[in-house]
Prior knowledge:
Layout: E1 18-24, E2 27-40, H1 41-45, H2 50-53, E3 64-75, E4 80-83, H3 93-99, H4 105-111, E5 121-123, H5 129-132, E6 136-138, E7 144-146, E8 152-156, H6 157-165, H7 180-185, E9 188-191, H8 193-198, E10 201-203, E11 206-210, E12 219-226, E13 232-237, H9 260-274, E14 280-282, E15 291-296, E16 302-304
Parallel strand pairs: 4-5, 5-8, 8-9, 13-14
Antiparallel strand pairs: 1-2, 2-3, 3-4, 6-7, 10-11, 11-12, 12-13, 14-15, 15-16
Amino acid sequence: MASPQAASPSAPALTDLVRARTTVGDFELTVCTDGTYLLDGGAMFGVVPKTLWQKRIPADEQNRILLGLNTVVVRTGKHTVVIETGIGNKQSAKMREIQANQELLPTSLAAARVSPEEVDVVINSHLHFDHCGWNTTLHADGSVTPTFPNARYFAHAGEVAHGHLQLDRDRVSYLSPNYDPLIASGQMTLLTTDAIHTNPEIVPGISVELFPGHTAQLMGIHIDSRSHAGAAQHACYISDLIPTAAHLDPTWVMGYDLDPLTCIEQRKRFYQRAIPENWLVLFTHDHHTPMAHITLNEKGKPIVNATT
């Protein structure tokens, strides 16, 4: 797979609307995209010095790096599940100018031959604007409607409660039109921590698990299927716990993380299963490496498996 170093923030043009395809057991996975966007490299790597992180991801003259907006479509044979929905079309003109996002998910889904009407489940790992933007579509008359009219949406109740607080630290990350209309209509199911611990499965083969740190209720989405040959396979959309393949080092956490020390411990917990069990890791913000298996190098550091 391509290295994240292959990207240049000065040339964010998409080469392919469908970023990747694979199978996990009998499930079909397609990585669609809402395009790319630009965020400050320092914020994306927290206290990691620029002299280190720029070796992995180059920055432009404004210190911005190129990030992807990866949506994973899972066809299980019984369900069509969409994991994450990008930035959407509700950003202000000022924010679109700063971030240079392209609002491409509907076009990408069409290229992948995924109809919004066929989607019956949408899962948001958390409710930051760049993960749930196309939950709903903003129209010219100011109205907002569900992008996936026949889907049941799932998010954590704590994310909604936190977003409604509009705290100084992260209120810019929560846009209520991305989720409040769905809650009001009953189309969005709000999961509680107790409910997740009791029954984490959303549909057969698709389940959620809490990996707090980036937000208090960040959810990883597990995809587990057994092929006709009998071999079980596993993938995990780990969201902003590990946003790109350049963030694999446990201590390379983001300035956006609400609890960076917890993020470090949760990454270690994730690797304890993901590496020995050879999980396919799905990255939310890596445009050039949307998925990879992880291994350890000679120093014991997690890296992308070169044979992926």
